[in-house]
Design goal:
With about 80 residues, the protein is mainly α. Helices cover about 75% and strands about 0% of the residues.
């Protein structure tokens, strides 16, 4: 599964986690509880078969680079 297969909120949480935000900071940014952030992250890790935050950040970064490259090649 890829980032695009996550729900819009899961994509936002994944991007925020990849930016290095803590669960508390993510919760404040989106107006949700830290428990909700934890549930989203758990769902994201399961859907993407990621063991944790570091691998998620790497995956998000690689996806962004691949998407930017595809857009540049189509221009």
């Amino acid at each position: 599964m890829t980032i695009e297969n996550l729900t819009p909120r899961e994509q936002q949480v994944a991007d925020a986690a990849a930016r290095g935000l803590t669960n508390r900071q993510i919760a404040a940014e989106f107006g949700i509880s830290t428990e909700t952030v934890k549930r989203h992250l758990s769902s994201i890790y399961g859907k993407l078969a990621m063991p944790g935050r570091v691998m998620l950040a790497i995956h998000v970064a690689r996806t962004a680079v691949a998407n930017a490259s595809a857009v540049a090649n189509n221009s």
